Structure formats: structure tokens, C-alpha cells
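batch_manifest entry 22 of 60
target: Cation:proton antiporter
source organism: Duganella vulcania
requested by: lab member K.T.
priority: normal
notes from requester: please return C-alpha cells only, no post-processing; we will run our own comparison against the previous entry in this batch. if the run fails, retry once and flag.
--- input ---
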Amino acid sequence: MTNVWTLAALWLGLALVATLLSIWLRVATALSEIVVGTVAQLLIGALIGGSVLGTDESWIKFLSGTGAIVLTFLAGAELDPTVFRTQWKEACSIGLIGFVAPFFGCAAAAHYLLGWGSSASWLTGVALSTTSVAVVYAVMLEFGLNKTHYGKTVLAACFINDLGTVLALGFIFSPFTVKTLVFFGVSIAAFAVLPWLTPRFFRRYGGRPSELEAKYLLLILFALGALASWADSEAVLPAYMIGMVLAGSVGKDHALIRRLRTLTFGLLTPFYFIRAGSFVSVPALIAAPAAFFVLLLAKMATKFAGVYPVTKIYNSPRREAMYTTLLMSTGLTFGSISALFGLSHGVIDQAQYSYLVAAVIGSAVVPTLIANAFFMPHHLVAEAVPAAKVPPAEDIAVASLPEP
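--- output ---
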């Protein structure tokens, strides 16, 4: 057990360093964890050996996978059903074009400009079609826009965008067999029953120190995750849908969500993001930096070509339209999840994975900086809740968390 505790201490030490960097640099924790994982693998691998981090240890894979599943569930649970019902046309239009345009555009760029194979190109389209709820949610919280009609609509569009990504990842890269039909059938039944069963079960047995609610949710996530894996799919796919169908009940239980966040961001997601970063090949990036720039520019250009015209259809002023487009151009969690899925299943090689993750990281930073520097809708910030000008400590803490 000495090796296990030593590795655990090393990984949590890296997680602590990443958290401090995110605080000092004011970036999403997920972003800093990916970078720390990349640097740690490079330095430790050069000084001691590449196997020191133990990225292939079964317990590290389990914690990493659990982090991805619960994080994906929390992302779905953040959907605001009330706003979605009133603004579903605008949210769906922006979200769908925000997925479709970069999905096909980035796949074409990877195939025709970089010469990648068809499977790798489609995986690239999936990975770069995402919008980072992590970045968008943090920006909304920081400026109080999450309390405005505008902010809630943009967040709803983010969820539609990422739902397209999740479905594309499952449909394109999962083999269609009898197992697939069983998986879909059981999942649909679960999605139909859970919104009715969960609140009633919680009302009768919840609210106790034994944390029954967390155990119940983890059981559902693990069970459907196991079924997805059995069907040769990805365990995060049903997790996102479970979060969405339970957004009206579990998503409104702020105490439960906070406890799940503590478990997820305190222990689980550092293993996922640091492990994802450790697979990035810095020598490959240095050898061919053009691939990184092609992918990043392709994502931003296709997002702009798709999202901006749709925002104008719904009569958004120029500043708001540009701000929405740039926020929809961000990517982080689902992009890295899709890239790691491709690497783990042999769809892309390590060099292609490195280019993809670097482009994902770049898309989390560059559009956000441009949006906040040049296109901030100050009139909406002024109309937000006055307390947003000086965010309470709780909101500041939440804003630093890597919501997907």
C-alpha cells in the first residue's frame, strides 16, 4: 500500500498546485489541472521516468472515470428548465448551429488541411464542436449575468450545444449491435422514470447524515455507465442526460449539489484532468505547431460563421451578438473528454491528441479574453442584481470551479 499512498499524495499535491495556479491566474481549475498534468509528465518523465505518475494504475483510472461521469452529470443538472421552456427556440437555434458548424467545419479542416484520416477527422469535429459551460458559467457568475434573462438563455444554448456533442460521440463511435439497442432501451426507460421517482424517494428517505441522495445518484450513474461500457459506448453519455432530466429536482437542491461538487472537485476531477494533461506530447506540439493553430482557428471561425448570424436573427444588438458568439466559441471539459475517448479507443494517436487538447485549451482562453476585453455588454451588467458588482464569497468560490 505504500506505493498507493505515495501516488495519491503526489496526485493531490499536483491538484493543490493546479488550484493555486487557477487562483493566482484567475482561470478555470480544469484548465490549470490539464496544464499541470502536461508539465508534470514532461518534467518527471525526463528526470525520473514516465511511469512514475502511474497513469495506467487501475485505481487512478477508476477515480478519473468517476470524476468524468459525476462532472458530466453536474453539467446537465445546471440546466434551468423554466428559462428553457420560455426561450427554447432561441436556445435550441444557437445551440444547434453552435454544434453543427464546427462539427463539420473542423472535421473538414482536419481532413483536408492536416491530412488526417476520416475517423480522426470526425473525432476532431466532435471534440471542437463543444462549448465550455465551465468558462461561460464562471464568466456569468463573475459579472452577475447568470441572474439575467440573457445569461440564462446563453447557458441553455450551451447545454443544447454540448448535448449535440455527447450524442455525436455516442452515435458515431459506438458500434450498433443488440447491446446498443438494449442500452438505448434501458436508458430511455430510466430517463422517463427518474424525474418521477427521484423527488419522491428523496422526500421520503432523504435529508439524513447518511447522504442517501449521493449514494442513490452514484448508483444510477454507475449502473448506466456500466451498461454503456458493456454496449461499447462511453459512460459519460447517459450521465449528461440523467443530469438534464433531473435538473428540475436535483438541480434545485443547492445543498445536495454543493456536496456533490465538494466530492467531485475536491477528489475526483483532479485525477481526470491531470491524467488527461499527462497524455499531451509537448515534443509533438513543438515539432508541428501549425496543426494547433489550424484547429484553433477552425473552431473559432466556424463558431463565428454559425452562431453570429443566428443571434442577429433574434435581434441581438451587435455587442451582445459578438459576446454570445465568443462565449459559445469556448471549449474545455467535453472537448478533453472527447479527445481522451479518441486516444483510449485508438481513433487518434498521441500526436493528434496533443494537438486537439492544445486547441481545446486555447479555445478556453482566447475567446474569453477577447469577449471580456472588447465586447462586454456593460448595460446588462449594470441591470444585473446590484450584489453582482461585489460578488459574495460563495459566488466567487463557485466561479472558480470547473463547471463543464
